[in-house]
Design brief:
alpha+beta; eight-stranded mixed β-sheet; 8 helices; 14 strands; globular
Length: about 325
Amino acid sequence: MTKAIDFTLKISAVVGTSLASWCAGQYYERCQQVKDEKNNIYNIFNLKRMPGLPIFGTVSAASPIVPNDNQIDMGNKLSSTTSRISQIMKYGFPGFDTVRSFDDYVLSYDRRNRIAHWVFEHLTRDGLYSENKSKVDRSKCEFKPDESIHPYFRSLNSDYKGSGFDRGHLAAAGNHKLCQNHMEQTFFLSNMAPQVGVGFNRDSWNRLEKYVRKLTKVYTDVYVCTGPLYLPKKEGDGKKYVRYQVIGANHVAVPTHFYKVIVGQTNDLKFEMEAYVMPNGPIDDNTPLTSFQVPPESVERAAGLLFFDKLSRDKLTKINGKKV
């Protein structure tokens, strides 16, 4: 009986050792296979091994550029920038997809279409009409790629060259005259979208931007959100389609329309809202801006965004000039 038990234990030990060896061998082969597959994938797609870049061509989120200042200056700058962002976004973010903050405006970047989902600004009379504006020179500003966006998703100046479209500002350069750096930051291509030049960007859209600036003489604070739309159009077969052009090697999307949603705040904390949608095409300069006013809810539905969600609608005294 004892011999039988000893024999059974020996057999179990041999089987256990064999099984463990087999599992270890399988694990080693699997590791080698994964390693080989990884190397093959890198070779096929010519991807560099770099932090935040997993295999299969996926990429990490874009990061903002951090200036190379000394730590004390950087701390002060980050503190003031954070405070400014909180002020700009006081009444809520429309969305959180690839949010990029600059010194004087905030945007959410659409990596697929290579333009912004939305751009948010906070304007005041002092900021627009300060004594420093004479020291700000637009001619010194240059259009440049936004290096905080991953290279896969950036738009480049070459995309616009020969396209027939302007590099149209979403956060208008004229809204940021407080200092040269503020205006220069509006020339990042992440703040641009392809716009028809004559009749739109240089004319009717420019009129709307000037109108927004004039609102700072009426309200103590003006909050404005600007962005693109891709609206459907009924075609010959009676069906509706969303069709838009893309330009350049990076396929930068050309929006069919652009919107601005504006909130003006008075001294006694009353709020008025206006919303505009303009087609991206030549517009008769005699067309009044009020003809482009739309219900704010229609922009939210079309853009898939909620504007000023921290501002209760019952606090609005007027919408598009009409009492609520």
